[in-house]
Amino acid sequence: MRAFFPAPRSSFSSMSLSPEARKTLAGITTATITTVLLKKGLRNVWMRRARPLRPGLPRLVGPAFTLRFVPAREDLATPESWSSPISTRTAIEAMPEGCIAVVDAMGITDAGIFGDILCARMVKRGVTALVTDGVVRDVEGVLGTNLPVWCDGYAAPPSVAGLTFVGWGEPIGCGGVAVFPNDIVVADQDGCVLIPQAMLEHVLNEGVEQERMEAWIVNEVNNGAALPGLYPMNAETKARYAASKT
Questions:
Q1: Total number of domains constituting the chain
Q2: Quick one: 68 and 140 in the same domain?
Q3: Interatomic CA distance for residues 16 and 18, integer angstroms
Q4: Contact call for residues 181 and 95 (beta carbons, < 8 A)
Q5: CA-based Rg of the chain, rounded to a whole angstrom?
Q6: Quick count: other Cβ atoms within 10 Å of Cβ 94?
Q7: What angle do CA 160, 164, 167 make, to 5 degrees?
Q8: Which tens digit of pLDDT belongs to each residue from 148-171?
Q9: pTM score above 0.85
Q10: Is 207 helix (H, G, I), strand (E, B) or coil?
């Protein structure tokens, strides 16, 4: 009954993010990343409605493994569809270690896309995190799996009560952001930010410097400095900051 859906593309590359890049990004806040990308003209990179399910999650980084739902259609969104080759179960078995699963649920909040069993399997597959603009179900069990989750809350009904799963490994929209497979996702307490692959080196370079500069500014503020001329820096402050790095 699902045969008319095109087969998902195997476009995920395990080499899309080096260990060194992952470590560097783990030290750059999502707030800083949005600033760095804004300066390059990218304004829409923060995924709305994707908030940490559990307070205090560490900052996590990984290449995006995309999944997509569309509105429920009664002949397709059935419990029997969970056994289809095009199912969330099959998609999870395609998730490589270290990825971040990014799920387009169209902001629907009355049907949970994944529950505790699916999240437990993702943990076994070495998935770094789950990010969605929708919700999860079996929240107590999901929390018990220790899978880091960014979502819009939780609901009891299963996904087929409001959604039809249609595939993975293709461009999606999540929280109003266009997400392509292998784009880099950074998630922390401020939410989830997308870094296009083409912008990765720029963010790695500029993000580290932005964090260093802002730490210096915070220290100046703590020492009693006034904001005008400090943030943003005037020429004199830039000279003092440059001298501090030598």
A1: 2
A2: yes
A3: 7
A4: no
A5: 20
A6: 15
A7: 130
A8: 999 999 999 999 999 999 999 999
A9: yes
A10: helix
